[in-house]
Amino acid sequence: MLPAARVPSDSLARGRRLAGELRTEGEPDTADLIEELCADVEGVRRQITRVGFDLHDEGLQDLTALRNDLYLFRAQISLVLGSSKDRRRVLGRVDDFIARVVSLDGVLRDVAASAGVSPALRRSLSATLEAIVDAYPGPCVVESRLDPALDSHPLTDDLRIALVRVVQSALANALQHSGAKTAFVSVRCHDDGIDAEIVDDGKGFDVKQVLWRAIEEQRLGLLGMQERVRSVGGNFTVTSKVGGPTRIAFSLPIAR
């Protein structure tokens, strides 16, 4: 069953037409019930959409301000610490906080997306991905190479959201866990869909060990990215080793 916010308007129209036919055929009670259900669904849909807009217009703006404040705080405390022996440890904790804020931003944007107001659907894909890359002015320098045909490629809304969220999650992981100094995002279009990869020069990890630990501790991270890609018919791989680098690659099918 579709959530109320996703019930298409033509479904409601069909319900109301059915109610009209039943009323004509002498079934007024059933017609009244169907019309009441249609009105309830439409009311719930409007409420969910309104919540989504409130979240996007207020909550996400506050979160963006918090993230910018944390970046400023990091720069200020970096100057104060100077060459202190605790510099790396303290800045690492600040980076952890920043990564958590970025991750929370992604979660809340998903909530807004479920209400039909995803920023990933209101701007071009290239603009959205460039905004994500630009959101990391911290110690990790992020570069990108986006296919010029990206914005004209026929992707469904679900595929566009998946592309944006996986790139966002991969960069958040690189910032929070890898200690990377540089990261690179690449998106390439082809006849069958889109290939994307995120590579960082961080400390790396044992992939099998991290995945087993994520399953045991019921943590998302890599598993969440993998599940999101597979849920829209794509393929997901991660390669890494202790000492780095780490490469997250995934492909999304074209909308036929």
Helix/strand layout:
Elements: H1 9-24, H2 28-81, H3 87-114, H4 119-122, H5 125-134, E1 141-146, H6 157-178, E2 182-190, E3 193-200, H7 207-217, H8 222-231, E4 235-240, E5 246-253
Parallel strand pairs: 1-2
Antiparallel strand pairs: 2-3, 3-5, 4-5
Helix pairs in contact: 1-2, 2-3, 3-6, 5-6, 6-8
Write up what this structure looks like.
The chain is an alpha+beta fold and 256 residues long. The protein has 2 domains: 1-117; 118-256, Heat Shock Protein 90 (2-Layer Sandwich). 61% of the residues lie in helices and 14% in strands. It is built from 8 helices and 5 strands, in the order H-H-H-H-H-E-H-E-E-H-H-E-E. Strand 1, helix 6 (157-178) and strand 2 form a beta-alpha-beta unit. The two termini are 24 Å apart.
In spatial order, strands of the major sheet run 1-2-3-5-4
The helix tally amounts to: 8
Global Rg:
23 Å
Q: What would you call the structural class?
A: alpha+beta
Characteristic key phrases:
five-stranded mixed β-sheet; Heat Shock Protein 90; alpha+beta; elongated; 256 residues; 8 helices
The gist of it:
The chain has 256 residues and is of the alpha+beta class. It has helices spanning 9-24, 28-81, 87-114, 119-122, 125-134, 157-178, 207-217, 222-231, and strands at residues 141-146, 182-190, 193-200, 235-240, 246-253. Helix 1 packs antiparallel against helix 2, helix 3 runs antiparallel to helix 6 (157-178) and helix 6 packs antiparallel against helix 8.
